[in-house]
Amino acid sequence: MLSVARTCHSASIPAIHLVRTFATESIHSPGDIHSPPPPNPPTKLNKPRTSLYLRPRPAVSSSLSAIPALPRTFGANQLLPVTDSTRALLESIVAQFDAPIRYAFAYGSGVFDQEGYEKQKDEDMPMLDFMFAVTHPAHFHSINMHQHPQHYPLHARVLGSSYVSRLEEVGPGVWFNPYVPMAGVRIKYGVTTVDNLCSDLLNWKSLYLAGRMHKPLRIIKDDARVRLTQQVNLTSAVRAALLTLPHEFPETELFERITGISYNGDPRMWLPAENRGKVANIVRKQGPQFKELYHRLAVGLPGVHWPVGETTIRQDTSAMARAAHLKKLPSNLIKGVREHYSRNSELSIEADESAFWLRLGGDEKLPHVLTEEMGSIVRYPAAVQTVKGIASAGIGKSVQYSMAKIGKWWSGSR
């Protein structure tokens, strides 16, 4: 037995050498192995890693990214300039939040000029409006409550971030913290999820967020997915507005139609809670920003003629051209239009889809139908958010905010 074992052992030695010959890694003897380098000296952290200073783990996906890097010039129309002082102020405010924010923008009369705010004193200046899109709202509110507990009403701090994130989901999916003093100014910031934001931008499920983003805004933190869906949202706004306009019209009329999409159906426009001249006030002062947003998108659509340097727009208003715009509107709006015509027409889309859209494109009532359906999309989420504001802001801030809105309504009614 011993001799057999020795024979097997001696026969295995050439095989081992043969395997080592074809190996891709070099084999070292024990004497060639070097001892590992000494560990790096510990570094001092500015803040301890305690439960009060949570930081999210890097969002590294093992799979391929759903959206590749966008070209550098894609969506350049969305990058509207502001003064250096305004840019520095907006960026410094967002930088004060430790909670992770994927996409952030500022909007409203505090960022871009709006008629009616030129001669106000510093203490009467409007709040700076922000919107933050996050990945996990409960995580964001948990960190933000530890850092900025004064931003939340007492009952929200008692009930915790899970309560805030659940209430945020109601209606259009936004939580607002108004009348927050930061960097020497007052701000109001809303929190939503990236998924909810992109869904509204693509489908117009509530038009609460998409409508706000039809108007000029300043991007502070960018995100490729949001920029892509925002470009779709802006193009949808141009198509919807064109379908309500004649063959020839001034560019200001296009801007007013686009701006009015989010206000049409908003109950605040009927109650003493909003300036009824708000649409015209926005467009009169922000014409250059609107043109930067929409000119290149509009001239890229078939049948639209808007030469550079001119303020008059001409479009093809044939039934075929209108049908082409109509079929590419957001899904929620198309659903409403289909249901409206299905209830009031003998023509069925199942019978002949091409004839159905052609018939709708040639209908003289189409602009009125579109206006009604967009208003119905806005109405319920806007009403829910108005009521929800009492729970998210608290009684005191809600009364303060309502009184400010009534003042704007009164000034716009005179």
Layout of strands and helices, then pairs:
Layout (H helix, E strand, L loop, with lengths): L1 H21 L61 H12 L7 E5 L20 E7 L2 H11 L6 H6 L1 H8 L6 E8 L2 E9 H10 L4 H5 L4 E5 L2 H19 L5 E3 H10 L17 H8 L1 H13 L4 E2 L6 E4 L3 H9 L3 H14 L8 H9 L4 H28 L1 H19 L1
Parallel strand pairs: 2-4
Antiparallel strand pairs: 1-2, 1-5, 3-4, 6-8, 7-8
Helix pairs in contact: 3-5, 6-8, 8-11, 9-10, 12-14, 13-15, 15-16
Unreliable segments (pLDDT under 50, ≥5 consecutive)? 1-35, 47-54, 56-65
Enumerate how many helices there are, as a single number.
Answer: 16
Calculate the terminal CA-CA distance, rounded to whole Å: 113 Å
Element order, helices and strands? HHEEHHHEEHHEHEHHHEEHHHHH
Percent helix: 40-55%
Query: Using DSSP, what is the number of strands?
Result: 8
- What can be said about the biggest beta sheet? 5 strands, mixed
> Taking all residues together, what is the mean pLDDT?
82
Q: Evaluate the radius of gyration.
A: 29 Å
Structural class: alpha+beta
Strand content: 5-15%
Looking at the structure, what is the overall shape? globular
> How is the largest sheet built, in terms of strand order?
3-4-2-1-5
